[in-house]
Specification:
The chain has about 650 residues and is mainly beta. It folds into 3 domains: about 180 residues, no CATH class; about 160 residues, no CATH class; about 200 residues, no CATH class. Helix content is about 5%, strand content about 45%. It has 4 helices and 56 strands. The strands form 10 sheets. It has a 16-stranded mixed β-sheet that branches. The longest helix has 7 residues. It is globular and about 95 Å long. It starts with a helix and ends with a strand.
């Protein structure tokens, strides 16, 4: 395409998209079945129900989108009667949609483009569909996968179509009718909804991970008619390789007329005989556990192993309000009244001849620390870190609403376990002389996400903060002469060895007030970031600020976004802010990553070695063809156009 006339000749039409929804059922039914007789069994089947909703801007609410036709959105100010014609290089977006889980099972979803009922599917060869979920980086539509807990909704999803610049004359005039964006949902396997523990933030016990279940075994007898020992096993309905409960029933305990024995576990029973409470006496969960087919007045012990949840600190088992005998291993549980709890696997093993009331008591814990192979449990993340010894691993066990400081001379690896630290101010402070890593979770902060004044060996978390998401070597004003005035500035020498992944977003939503000068990554005058090998960086002002000319040594991957733009085009700075990629100093070496081509892009280009190249990608539609006006970005067809660039080997 060498001139505008030829380019216009390639314009073509792509009709609006039909948004639909489907569910894969087939094999998922096997997750609801049970082999026991329905005459005595209690089977509670979950429901898999996924829906699509579209945001109605006029009404200001989400409405049902299934079966509706959504129009691609034209630029603000475009004539209402102007048709949407696609040409090489153009990008159109659909209105925001979201996926809603209306069933009572966690589900996994993905999206596909299908449903063509007319026209020429060849056109799809030159249209790339991408999808952006909330504030995450766009990904190809066919790569989108997500998980929703029951009754949950996804973040807003915006689908974009981009016609490749390489589209040739053979595509001109083609039209497709009835394109559909289909959401396919399947039940999530047990690693997410049964044992993953990330869908019930308020649950202080893992006992709720049990299922109402019934499992039976046939009774066999010897030549004299005496019953032989029977093992009854109940498995996770979603994963037959995972045992929920096992009961070893001696032949002497089985009734002479019984043809089968059954173990039954019922949640929230009217008359429970297994109750979990915390140390204050608060009831956490109730169950009724019973065994059928036993002799009346049985005195032979039945050995039961049942999953009650991992990391239940200080767990004790009571039978008829009398403490049972705590043993050192499951193998040591040999007599009526013995029990053992394995915190690592979550299984409780005990022996009893009767199933009158049992009570499980354990502390409500927040984190654990593993010191010299020994596990200790703690009521707060800060306490677990304080208890840590050199090179200790600390694990968060539930969502918390306070951060922690890593004290001087501590060396600790912090695994957030997929949970969230939601701190009113700064979430983590790594003290001078301290060493740590922070991975696998989410941080929300009302001030700074992570302030490093020591050494961080690895970061791979999702951070969203009002101020800097990462503040590496952030200085502070202190009172050195005792007069009450903080008049002396201290600059710290901090080292961040690697950012290997995660999201580092320096803004909070909804935005209460404008706040400029905020970055996904801040690196101080005396501090160093040795390697960025992954992660997404975005702030109100720019992706990062690097005060040290030798401060960021190497970037091999990652995504460095345009400054954050709020609803209606609101920005948080001045007329130059929305063009900024970074402030102050570029990294010393750039051999990877995707970069917003803002006004400092030429400085990044200068750091790319001759063995690598920058490949121009999609248009950054959030800021392109806009102008600054009274704190907002408004449409301007003559405004600058910004592209993303990906650095890769030649």
């Amino acid at each position: 395409m060498t001139n505008s006339k030829t380019k216009r000749a390639l314009c073509l039409s792509l009709l609006s998209m039909l948004v639909c929804v489907s569910m894969l059922i087939g094999t998922t039914f096997a997750w609801f079945t049970d082999t026991a007789s329905t005459g005595v069994n209690r089977i509670q089947a979950g429901t898999l129900d996924v829906a699509l909703e579209v945001y109605d801007a006029d009404e200001g609410e989400w409405v049902d989108a299934e079966g509706k036709t959504l129009d691609f959105v034209k630029a603000t100010g475009a004539p209402a009667d102007e048709p949407i014609l696609w040409e090489p290089g153009c990008t159109y977006k659909l209105p925001a949609i979201r996926i809603v889980n209306k069933g009572n099972l966690a589900l996994k979803y993905k999206m596909t483009v299908n449903g063509i009922v007319g026209g020429d599917a060849k056109l799809l060869e030159v249209i790339d569909f991408t999808v952006k979920v909330g504030n995450t980086a766009p990904v190809p539509l066919d790569m989108l996968e997500g998980i929703l807990a029951k009754a949950a909704a996804s973040d807003p999803i915006v689908i974009s179509g981009h016609m490749l610049e390489t589209a040739g004359n053979e595509y001109q005039g083609l039209t497709i009718y009835g394109i559909a964006i289909t959401v396919v949902a399947t039940q999530v396997s047990s690693e997410y909804d049964s044992f993953g523990n990330q869908y019930d933030a308020d649950a202080s016990t893992g006992i709720d991970q049990l299922f109402p279940l019934r499992s039976t075994s046939l009774v066999t007898r010897d030549g004299s008619g005496n019953a032989t020992d029977v093992t009854v096993t109940a498995v996770d309905p979603a994963d037959s390789s995972t045992t929920i409960l096992e009961a070893l029933i001696p032949g002497d305990a089985i009734d002479g007329n019984a043809s089968e024995v059954a173990v039954i576990v019922d949640e929230n029973a009217a008359t429970p005989n297994l109750t979990a409470v915390d140390t204050s006496g608060k009831v956490l969960k109730t169950f009724d556990v019973s065994v059928t087919g036993l002799k009346a007045g049985n005195t032979a012990g039945v050995k039961v192993t049942i999953f009650v949840g991992k990391d239940r600190a200080g767990l004790m088992l009571y039978h008829n309000q009398t403490p049972m005998n705590k043993k050192n291993s499951a193998a040591d549980v040999m007599d009526d009244g013995d029990f053992f709890y394995d915190a690592d696997t979550g299984y409780l093993t005990f022996i009893s001849s009767t199933f009158s009331p049992f009570t499980i008591v354990h502390r409500d814990v927040t984190a654990k620390a593993i010191v010299n192979g020994e596990t200790t449990y703690h009521g707060s993340l800060a306490d677990a870190i304080q208890a840590a010894d050199d090179e200790t691993a600390v694990y968060l066990l539930k969502n918390v609403q306070s951060g922690a400081t890593i004290p001087e001379n501590k060396n600790v690896d912090i695994n957030l376990g997929g949970y969230t630290v939601d701190a009113p101010k700064t979430a983590f402070i790594v003290s001078e002389g301290a060493t740590c890593s922070i991975v696998n979770g989410k941080i929300l902060a009302g001030q700074y996400g992570i302030v490093n004044r020591g050494t961080i060996t690895e970061l791979n978390v999702d951070v969203q903060s009002l101020m800097y998401a990462i503040a590496n070597g952030l200085g502070e004003w202190v009172d050195t002469d005792g007069d009450g005035d903080t008049d002396t500035r201290i600059e710290y020498t901090a080292v961040l060895k690697e950012i290997s992944g995660g999201n580092y977003l320096a803004y909070r939503e909804p935005v209460a007030y404008p706040l400029a000068g905020v970055f996904g990554l801040y690196n101080g005058t005396n501090s160093v970031v040795e390697l960025i090998s992954g992660g997404t960086f975005q702030g109100n002002s720019a992706a990062f600020r690097n005060y040290n000319a030798n401060g960021i040594l190497s970037v091999t991957d990652g995504r460095f976004e345009h400054p954050y733009v709020y609803e209606g085009g609101k920005i948080f700075g001045d007329s130059n802010t929305y063009k900024a990629l970074f402030y102050n100093n570029a990294p010393l070496s750039v051999t990877g990553g995707t970069w917003f081509g803002g006004k400092e892009w030429s400085s990044i280009l200068a750091k790319i070695p001759s063995t690598h190249q920058a490949v121009q990608g999609e248009v950054c539609t959030a800021v392109s063809q806009k102008k600054y006006s009274s704190g907002y970005l408004v449409e301007d067809p003559n405004g600058p156009v910004f592209y993303y660039y990906t650095v890769q080997p030649n």
